[in-house]
Amino acid sequence: MNTLIISVDMGEPDYQAHADEFVMLATGAGAVIADVVVAKRSKPDAAYFIGSGKVEEAVRLAEALEVELILFDHPLSPAQQRNLERQFNRRVVDRVSLILDIFALRAQSHEGKLQVELAQLQHLSTRLTRLWTHLERQQGGIGIRGPGESQLELDRRMIGDKVRKLRERLEKVQRQRATQRRARMRSSTLTVALVGYTNAGKSTLFNALTRANAYAADQLFATLDPTTRKIWIEGTGQVVVSDTVGFIRDLPPALIAAFRATLEETVHADLLLHVVDASSPQRDEQIHEVHKVLEDIGAAQIPRVLVYNKIDQAGFEPRIERDEHGKILRVFVSALERVGLDYLREAIAESGQLSESNAFNVQNLQLE
User: What whole-number distance in Å separates Cα of residue 174 and Cα of residue 172?
Assistant: First the structure.
């Protein structure tokens, strides 16, 4: 679909990285980008986000390029989206809607599809009024008294009913996961979850560690559905490894809420392997964004090891880095080249022994 991107520079130091990431999101969703309009703002305009002058410029460009879709790289309020669509006379999709669309495109499992549908409905429920402007103009008359309001209320009720049913089905999935986790806890199996910024190479690393064939590609949100495998690690025994959905800056709250059942694999893990793209110039900012999401879902206190992946592209050597107390801080690997994986297994084994020791100490404290 021929697309015009409107990118807003609010003066952030990492604006260009943010803009490049949005282009990757757009192309990943199947957009053919005709051009990018950059608008500089100190703060959003209440009506159009970018101001009326920039809107007129973008409208002329959209008509000249015959684009079909306008993509906005920031979240828009319902009023801003409605005003922009009236000016462009084209569909306007903001950052949140684009991410939701990509999630809908990539979800494969029944659970993943339920989670995406729930997030989409929750997002849609805040924007219903703009769908029925053609009915709202009708002021009444025989057989059409108040049809706009009636239709709007009907849609709200239908969406509310669907959201409630989806939540009930996801709660059932959550209970099933809880049962599986309790079984693992009874068997004292170490659980490890791979987390990280999207496109950091988590799925490739998961495949390298577990010899699985989970889908992996060089694109944002290549896979959404959690995958779990058991592996044997010398010195620890059976370990359950889970690959989880990748994170991204400004991840829509509706998605975090909808994917809570999946993210609970992270919350209940004994160890987090935080996979970092070592070749990315924005790796420090991406680490920070992942930490923020981990805090949001209640996983900030879980022991974690930073795994610097893609060292073949970054020029690093495979190794383990420790702090002054000998605790493992970072492991440097290349999942694609399968280099440094022995160091990673060593880190998992060592962290697993610490987890068992901590669990033993907690149990003793409870007994005392």
Answer: 5
Q: Per the structure block, which two tokens stand in for 165?
A: 């049913």
CA dist 45 to 52, 62, 123, 127, 349, Å? 9, 20, 22, 19, 53
Question: Cα–Cα distance between 305 and 299 in angstroms, integer?
Answer: 13
**161's tokens:** 């009913």
Per-residue pLDDT tens, the chain, 368 aa: give them: 899 999 999 998 889 988 998 998 898 888 999 999 999 999 999 999 999 999 999 999 999 999 999 999 999 998 999 999 999 999 999 998 888 888 777 777 777 778 778 888 877 777 765 444 444 444 443 333 434 445 566 677 777 888 888 888 877 877 776 666 565 555 568 889 999 998 889 989 999 998 876 655 555 665 555 678 899 998 888 898 988 777 887 776 666 766 665 566 677 788 999 999 999 988 999 999 899 888 877 888 899 999 999 999 999 999 999 999 899 999 999 999 999 999 999 999 998 665 554 443 433 433 33
Which string of b and e fits 262-297 if b means at least 16 CB within 10 Å? Answer: bbbbbbbbbbbbbbbbbbbebbebbbebbbebbebb
Report the helix count and the strand count for the chain, using DSSP H and E.
13, 11
Q: What are the structure tokens assigned to 126, written together?
A: 């805040």
* Angle, CA of 156, 157 and 160, to the nearest 5°: 85
For residues 66 and 17, give the distance between their C-alpha atoms in angstroms, rounded to a whole number: 28
